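Students often ask why we bother encoding 3D structure as a string. The short answer is that it lets us treat folding as translation between two languages. Here is a chain of 435 residues written in the first language.
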Amino acid sequence: MNRFHPRPADPSLTIGDVNGPFIYNKKLHLQFQQNPGNGMGWGHVVSDSLVGPWEDVGYSLLAPNTKDGQEKTVGYISGSVSVIEEVPYLIVPLNNGNNPTCCDAYNWDYPDPIDAIVVDVDGGVANHGWVQQDPSHMWVDPTSSDDDVRYLFLAGTSVNGTENNFNGLPIIEVLRSRTSSPSDGFDFLSTFSSDGLQMCDPELVTFGNISLVYSEQFLDAGTNAVLSLFNGNGNTFAPKGFLHEDGRYLMWATIKGGTNKISLTYEMTFEFDLGIALVNPVEEYKALRSPCGGGIDEITTITEADAILADVELIDPLHLDLEFELKVDPGAGLELSLHGGDIVLGIAMGSEGNKLELSFNGGVGSEVVMKAAESVQLRIIIDDNVAEIFCMGGRQQLVQSFVLGEGGSGLGIQCVEGAECGQVVRANIFTLAYL
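And here it is in the second language, the structure alphabet:
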């Protein structure tokens, strides 16, 4: 069982987009499409912390045929929840033909009944006929006054319900509350777009004077420039998040590959000198670590023959948090293998030492920008059959599911070509477990 990746208690239930994560009464609520295409509702897991453990509390938003047998093959596609002044507001685009009329089937009674206010969103239809989907969380309009606070949110749009674009350009719609109460509804305010990007599930985050919209890409909302990708090297989709009360931008995404799992809890920050959005696991995971032994705290040369740390005993199921600092020679490549080669991370340094390429089990590589003379910093969190890899403090993130073979053990690092290819500066190995 995956301890740290949220999922339904019933592993046969398929899941889709993350919808409506929020914190209410000190409980973290994660919701997601559950059973898509077959009377879909929103699955719902709850935790007392940002990192679990997670309790499945059943459906929170049910499609009609899930509730009373009505014929419908598609349920509530998208929506969000925002908590404003201790009141939860549910946003479901009622103009999306895939969403039934909302919301007599609302079912939040854990740990206490939650009476969410349903926000009527029809400004888009009234103004231009676009179909809205994937609403973001709400935030305060910075242009509003203290005595007349207004709220904004983003929505992806489609034309005739078929494509996430308008005249060939993906469109993000900005909506503004009609009054200081979100329950009075929202109207269309403006749009922005970026050629070539599919901006489903948009969310806005702000770092100083930089505002980013993230979906499966990070888009500079001021220049429409793509700063980096957030898609787990193609293996996650539909990220959703919100601004925590402590100032951190938190987010989650759904993992591809039939895992039926949600990602770890991420924190998003920004590296200003490189202009790169960073994705990392929240710090709370470190409180769950215990030393596993076999680490390295002195510089060790990597060769084609050495299997460094081969004596480390790894126990199935795997719940590990690994940290590495490596010096990789320009033009060199090495492999980090785990559990007898069931997991192989390929690391290749560019000839000029300014770009790094990561690959997982021989798959498509993912490029990472490097500064001059930087060592390679890796963090790898393995939870049963899912590995999440964070490189250079979150400049690049890979997510991959895998299959464990029988009797595998050990952790090795060796050169792909050549007698020597670099050095291990530091290696720490931890097990993960809830206290």
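Translate back mentally: Residues 123-127, 160-169 have pLDDT under 50 and may be disordered. Keep this in mind for the problem set.
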